[in-house]
């Protein structure tokens, strides 16, 4: 059976939280579940899931240009961050602004994860390509903050590295793909 791409739905949330937690080592929490519930009903978020034999094996989330950069500029978004997270967010924000110059007329890949046993399949690139096709339909650039392990994969999909932000847990590569 092949990997299948499908729209992400509310019943997928528990499996996504469990898989995301196991892949990223971020603990599952009520706050994380609430974030997923908000994302699923957000008309400006597009989330695709990858399944194999009916089992969720990954997901990718895209915020459309219609969010107008609120994922970065909303006071509520910044208010919850702890001091360590705030320092990290401040460094990423400064670098992001150097890249985007306040032009948020783009799509943002804010989420992508895949079960490790499916890394040798096309599932990850298929999920990202799914979102890129939709961004291309409306002629929008796409922005992502990639890890070192993701950088080459994004480059194969047409992204250009704009700057690197050195962080204690690993460099983040701020990348753009033209419309």
TrEMBL record:
InterPro entries: Acyl_CoA_acyltransferase, GNAT_dom, Trichothecene_AcTrans. Residues 3-179 form the N-acetyltransferase domain. GO terms for molecular function: acyltransferase activity, transferring groups other than amino-acyl groups. SUPFAM superfamilies: Acyl-CoA N-acyltransferases (Nat). This is N-acetyltransferase domain-containing protein. It comes from Didymella glomerata.
């Amino acid at each position: 059976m092949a990997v299948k791409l499908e729209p992400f739905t509310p019943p997928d949330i528990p499996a996504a939280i469990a898989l995301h937690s196991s892949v990223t080592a971020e603990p599952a929490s009520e706050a994380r579940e609430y974030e997923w519930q908000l994302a699923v009903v957000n008309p400006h978020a597009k989330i695709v899931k990858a399944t194999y034999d009916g089992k969720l094996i990954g997901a990718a989330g895209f915020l459309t240009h219609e969010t107008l950069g609120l994922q970065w500029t909303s006071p509520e978004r910044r208010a919850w961050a702890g001091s360590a997270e705030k320092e990290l967010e401040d460094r990423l924000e400064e670098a992001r602004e150097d890249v985007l110059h306040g032009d948020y007329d783009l799509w943002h890949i804010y989420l992508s994860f895949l079960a490790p046993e499916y890394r040798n399949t096309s599932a990850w690139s298929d999920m990202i390509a799914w979102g890129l096709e939709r961004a291309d339909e409306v002629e929008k650039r796409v922005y992502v903050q990639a890890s070192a392990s993701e950088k080459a994969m994004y480059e194969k999909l047409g992204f250009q590295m704009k700057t690197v932000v050195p962080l204690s847990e690993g460099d983040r590569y701020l990348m753009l793909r033209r419309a």
